[in-house]
Amino acid sequence: MKLKGKYSESAVLYAILLSVGAVLAVVVFIVVLNLSGGELPKIGLPAAETTAAASATETTPAEEKGYEPDRELADEMKDAVISLISDNYTILRLYYIRGLSHKDEPYGNVPEDGYYTVDSDKYTSLSQIEEIVDRTFTKEFAEEIKTDPLGYGAIYKTRDSGELGIIANYTPMEYDRSWENPKFEIDPKSDTECGISLKLHEKADNSEVKVKAEMIKTDDGWRLTSIVF
Q: Where do runs of H (alpha helix) occur along the chain?
């Protein structure tokens, strides 16, 4: 009976050792999985949009996903959108929906050359404004903005006095959308083309408006193909 008890104790000890070994094996497997990266991180969108985008990606079959940039290019696209959309808003205000204030001519006369002198501490030369245009849009569209964006000629020019001038009959467009804290998603098409979906809000009722845009990669970097309203 004493010998039988020894075998029982050994069997129990052996079972315990097997259990501990199994647990250690699972722990090692988990550590190895984590070190190897596990699941790849989601690529593409700003933090505010990542959750919804990730959910959609998980339910999309691989054959329907189409082009997907690597992480480095996706980050480059996002950074480009942030910069371009900011400059786009500046150009939207300067050329389309606000314009710069101006100084009146003596005795309230209409300027002979058709341009008032701009009254601005921030913008004092044509080159300052056109530099923003050129770094934001493709060459073709930048030229359109600089020469005839609204159908009645160049909005700004350098006057004979050397001062920046704004066209005398400037009439801003009616516009009622808020650009406060806009959000965006990117839709990469290729290494050099990327769609943009921008979320704005109507000022009247705060309803959301989704605006589509496109940027392409040129020799000078990423550029919008048109003004984003």
A: 2-35, 47-58, 71-91, 126-136, 139-147
3-state secondary structure of 220: coil
Write the secondary structure of 125-162 as one string of H (helix), E (strand) and C (coil). CHHHHHHHHHHHECHHHHHHHHHCCCCCCCCEEECCCC
Q: Residue 217 phi/psi, 5° resolution?
A: -95, 120
What's the pLDDT tens digit per position in 63-119? 456 899 999 999 999 999 999 999 999 999 999 999 999 999 999 999 999 999 999
Side chain identity, residue 223: R
- Taking CA atoms, 147 is separated from 10, 108, 127, 133, 206, in Å, by 94, 27, 14, 11, 34
The count of other CB atoms within 10 Å of the CB of residue 215 is 26
Per DSSP, 203 falls in state: T
Which residues, 6+ apart, have CB-to-CB distance to 62 below 8 Å? none
Q: Which helix (H) or strand (E) holds 181?
A: strand 177-188
Question: Measured between alpha carbons, how far apart are the two ends of the chain, in Å?
Answer: 93
